[in-house]
Amino acid sequence: MYNNANKNRIVVVSFKTKTMRIALLLSLVLFINELLAQMPNTLTKTEKVYGLSKFWQEVNYNFIYLDKIDRDSWNEEYKRLITEVQETRDDYEYYRLLQKFCAMLKDGHTNVYEPDTIWNSLLNTNFGEYRLFLSNIEGKAIVTRTNLSKKDEIPIGTEITKVNGLNTATYLDQYVKPYISSSTDHALDDWAVRNLFRAPSGKKYDVELKLPNGKIKALTLTHTKTTEKEVYPPFEQSPTLLDFKWVGKNIAYVSLNSFSDPKIDTLFIEKLPELYKAKSLVIDLRNNGGGNTFIGMDILKYLTNDTILYGIKMRSRLHIPSYKAWGEWTEAKDTTGNNWEKQSFLSYRDKYYYDFEYEADTISEKIQRIVVPTVLLIGHYTASAAEDFLIYADNQDHMVKIGEPTFGSTGQPMQFDLPGGGSARVCTKKDTYPDGREFVGYGIQPDIIVRRTLNDYIDGNDPVLNKAIEYLKQKK
User: Fold this and answer.
1) Considering only the top CATH level, what class is 122-232?
2) Mean pLDDT per segment of 10 residues, for the chain of length 476 residues?
3) What is the C-alpha to C-alpha distance for residues 96 and 424, in angstroms, rounded to an integer?
4) SS3 content of the chain, % helix, strand, coil (to 5)
5) Which long-range contacts (CB under 8 A, 24 or more apart) does 81-90 make?
6) What are the angstrom distances between the C-alpha of 264 and each of 225, 284, 383?
7) How many CA atoms lie within 13 A of 394 on its CB side?
8) Which of 68, 107, 115, 274: CA 20 to 30 A from 39?
């Protein structure tokens, strides 16, 4: 009896010890994961208030579209944030508040960027055994790529219908879009879907998915690194600066994928012997996020018979403190026929501008041109200097734009540092068509609208390029 009791006692003690060890091990794993997911916490309260105030100050002094925001709401939010930023738990939470503050400005060239220590640690597509890449297709959050082992479980074309109990559109409106600064709604929608799950390691999402066959699937996804490297469909090779191919009889296709590197001008010139053979031309700007306006103009001059090109018209704010001081006592009626009073009145209200002297660009080189029926492919990611390219091409009768509205944001950002290694930029210049028409906030509109559907994506179909080819064949 005694020995048996002892045996039983030993067995019981041994079982409890094993359970405790397992629990302790699990707790340790969770603790380690929590440590790994922790964001840096380096900023003092003083630094947090300074960074907030620095951004607020630079916007008030330099932001070109200050007249388009509700100044009272902007200033009230600043005053509220003075307290809130001091209570943030870490640098990540602090920068999230700055990004939300920045998003009030609704400008794609005005942004707040986290320090690299935060930027490099955030996850978006990685969920351990799962990896999901999303795109905004027909207004829905669609899975357009997965890790290879999950391609049958979560087929391409699967829709994210709910996130943490909310339908996806509601979740995006409440938890994603308020942190993104965008000039256009369509760019905001695209960016929000692509970054639906951008968060630190350890962040958990309960999601509902609608598979292409209509079945509903529930998953709990937790951010952690995915070790599987293979994805489906495989990543395409990184786009080169310029791609060239023939897409039909005598139809040449050239994609200009960036104006950030002047090398693209050299690459284009190297293709001229082939391009001179073309009876029609497709210029693809859909993946061109901009760069230097004049790099694009150096290509466009080969595509027109004109010797003068009409580019953007520019304006910035002009601030002379004395005029602003005088403007406090100036009324609207005082400005009639009096430029001094007018400048004082507008300066006090932060609405006095400097219009840069407009000067068209002259093509002086004697070069052989390629003036044939030309389609310019455009889309939501056609931005900045690529949009300036379209302004230059606006009056070319042999050119037509096919695709979707462009990004709708350009200008000259002023960059500056923020505490802890972060940074920000504020747009200081307004660009318009030569006649004053605005495209920032709207996007440059295509002459022929063509949108890629979900079926197009699943089938690998490019309806925009197909429409261009069809259009050019009809022009012959």
Assistant:
1) mainly beta
2) 33 38 42 55 98 98 96 98 98 98 98 96 96 96 96 96 98 98 97 97 97 96 96 85 94 97 96 97 96 94 94 95 94 93 94 95 90 98 96 95 97 96 98 96 97 89 96 88
3) 13
4) 40, 20, 40
5) 81/52, 82/49, 82/52, 82/53, 85/48, 85/49, 85/51, 85/52, 86/45, 86/48, 86/49, 88/48, 89/41, 90/38, 90/39, 90/40, 90/41
6) 36, 14, 17
7) 17
8) 107
Helices (H), ranges, 104-244: 116-119, 168-175, 185-194
**Using an 8 Å Cβ cutoff, are 116 and 421 in contact?**
yes
Bridging pattern class, strands 122-123 and 199-200? antiparallel
pLDDT of residue 476: 67
Please give the full DSSP string across 35-46, using - where no structure is assigned: HHHPPP----HH
Question: Residue 198 has which token pair?
Answer: 């951008």
Could you tell me how far CA 133 lies from the centroid of its own chain?
A: 16
* Residue type (1 letter), 263: K
| DSSP letter string, 374-404 | EEEEE-TT--THHHHHHHHTTT-TTEEEEES
CATH of 242-475, one of 3.90.226.10, 3.30.10.20, 3.40.50.2300, 3.40.50.2000: 3.90.226.10
Nearest to 123 by CA among 42, 27, 36, 223: 223
Cβ-based neighbours of 84, under 8 Å, separated by 6 or more? 97
* DSSP-assigned letters across all residues of 46-80: HHHHHHHHHHHHHHHHH-TTGGGS-HHHHHHHHHH
Q: Which DSSP category does 212 fall into?
A: T
How far does CA 399 lie from the centroid of its chain?
27
Q: Given this model, what pLDDT does residue 24 score? A: 45
The residues, ordered by sequence, that sit 6+ positions from 306 with a Cβ below 8 Å of its Cβ are 363, 396
DSSP letter assigned to residue 439: -
- The number of angstroms, rounded, from the C-alpha of 400 to the middle of its chain's C-alpha atoms is 26
Output phi, psi for 346, to 5 deg: -75, -35
| Distant-in-sequence, close-in-space partners of 137: CB < 8 Å, separation ≥ 6 | 144, 452, 453, 454, 457
Closest to 303 measured CA to CA, from 240, 392, 243, 404: 392
Round to whole Å and give the CA distance between 386 and 407. Answer: 10
- Give the pLDDT score at 37: 53
Which tokens belong to 215? 């079945």
Contact of 388 with 298, CB cutoff 8 Å:
no
Distance between CA 448 and CA 159 in Å, rounded?
28
pLDDT at 7: 31
The domain segmentation of the chain, as residue ranges, is 1-36, 46-110, 122-232, 242-475
